[in-house]
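Structure ticket #2291
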Amino acid sequence: MSDMGSEELEEKGENDLGEYEGDRNEAGERHGHGKARLPNGDTYEGTYEHGKRHGQGTYKFKNGARYIGEYFKNRKHGQGTFIYPDGSKYEGEWMDDQKQGHGVYYYVNNDTYTGDWFADQRHGQGTYVYAETGSKYVGSWVNGQQEGAAELIHLNHRYQGKFLNKKPTGPGKYVFDIGCEQHGEYRLTDGERGEEEEEEESLTNVIPKWKATKITELALWTPTLAEGQPPVDVPGQEEAPGTEGEGEPVEESQALTDVSDGEGDVTRPGEEDTDAFREESGLTRAKSQD
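Resolution: structure written out below.
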């Protein structure tokens, strides 16, 4: 996502660098509207002020990239669009030549990120949409990575919890469209924790595993019951399989692989367990009704 180019060649204040056609002030500086061609083939057309790009302009790099937007004393600053050689694109706010503020990044594989930026990185609150599956990550970002409280939304279920180093961690829950929630926790196994102690970098290779604890009804608002009408019992409120000798609890060992640069396939928490969980919940409801 680097947008570094050769704009800096003009930042040295050498007004006679390359070819220039346009307005100048009494001091001979580029001032007003003009067109410039740098020795390396880059071009700029837009407004100048006292020899510097200032205001609205279009800078075209020889490698095919281009920036259309606002400048402040030779720096990208304000609203602007940067189109990269590979076809990816950023539209949004800039500050001191860096993506900062609110912006949208369109990746080559049609993934998108919409949200906060700081110092050229996704930082703050943002939404990343995976074009291939329609899933999306909605939540916190730190230094370009998925980190903090977030919700990972899939077609028929979602995961709510915290993320660290691009992976789910700690307590959380899966919310299923069949009308129930599975609560549990993502944690490292004892063996994986030992590896982490031996080498901090191993944390990036650790795959957190999901340990289910219970299944409950959806925690949603319901209409107020009429006076004297007893509440209706909701079936399905029971311990998850494995808590009382009924088999092992559901495990989820997939890592939330980072594809925030629009590359690679993603295995997201809960996708492989959905069908089995739906069938299990259906059996539980049938038993309750009997």
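Closing remark: The longest helix spans residues 274-289.
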